[in-house]
Amino acid sequence: MAPDKVTVPEIKRMKEKGERITSLTAYDYSFARILDAAGIDILLVGDSLGSVIQGQESTLPVTLDDVIYHTRAVVRGRKRALVVADMPFLSFQISVEEAKRNAGRLLQEGGAEAVKLEGGVEMLETVEAIVEIGIPVMGHVGLTPQSLHRFGGYKVQGKDRDQREKIIQDALAVEEGGAFSIVLEGIPMDLAQEITRRLSIPTIGIGAGPHCDGQVLVVHDMLGLFDMYAPKFVKQYADLKGVMAEAVKNFITEVKEGRFPDEEHSFH
User: Fold this and answer.
1) 217 beta partners
2) Cα(67)–Cα(183) distance, rounded to whole angstroms?
3) pTM exceeds 0.90, yes or no
């Protein structure tokens, strides 16, 4: 039976029990309420808001204040799910002290219960430092969108032997640093399976195949609301863009023809 409130220890226990973890991104109160009521385990306030909310070409322009703002809204809308906030570009890479301060802001000002940051071996000290001050950390390795220029775009990582070993070492470092879980993005499914087997903490996949301990998607992608690009790993569970467009067209027609508002939708 699902717990009344999903917590960090419960997420770790889910791997031990062999129970799959579900996660979706959320950026506002209304979506958070719907996803939470449906039973999602983790709401991720992702820096993907740069693309689907702000219309940016990447996640790089997203600021810490942006994430804090959206996290506040999500927290107001959820009762059960664990809320994890992304640490955006330059909020944790400058220094360990700045990373601790900014992670603290996401909890203190945003209301998040954990933070997510990208990187592996090079972020070991940072992960350790944030965990040491009592802030739960979710790691993120493989295709890390904040490093898209180094990768030459959004390309699957870990296809050759050197890359595979680097990603494995990154994942092991995140676990060593004390993270409670780790996102595996854009890697071959056999590599994700190996990492999932070797780690004691849950792996949450996005474009990493079926063998992870959980899965996460950008909610606008899986609901068909964002179609600027369509990654292979996204399954569209609904066409809400089509539903919304049809509703708006009907509204326009009824207003122009004088059919809305009618008696039923007017006051006397």
Assistant:
1) 24
2) 18
3) yes
Catalytic site residue from 113, 175, 185, 194: 185
The secondary structure of 181-218, three-state, reads EEEEECCCHHHHHHHHHHCCCCEEEECCCCCCCEEEEC
> What stretch(es) of the chain map to CATH 3.20.20.60?
8-237
Q: Which residue has the tokens 């890697």?
A: 187
Helix (H, G, I), strand (E, B) or coil at 88: coil
Q: Classify domain 8-237 at the CATH class level.
A: alpha beta
Amino acid 236 reads Q
Please name the helix (run of DSSP H) or strand (run of DSSP E) that holds residue 139, with its range, or none: strand 137-142
- What tokens does 149 get? 């220029």
Bond prior to 261 in cis (omega within 30° of 0): yes
pLDDT tens for the chain, residues 1 to 268: 445 899 999 999 999 999 999 999 999 999 999 999 999 999 999 999 999 999 999 999 999 999 999 999 999 999 999 999 999 999 999 999 999 999 999 999 999 999 999 999 999 999 999 999 999 999 999 999 998 778 777 889 999 999 999 999 999 999 999 999 999 999 999 999 999 999 999 999 999 999 999 999 999 999 999 988 788 999 999 999 999 999 999 999 999 999 999 999 999 9
185 is catalytic: yes
Contact 166, 172 (CB under 8 A): no
- The two structure tokens encoding residue 151: 């990768």
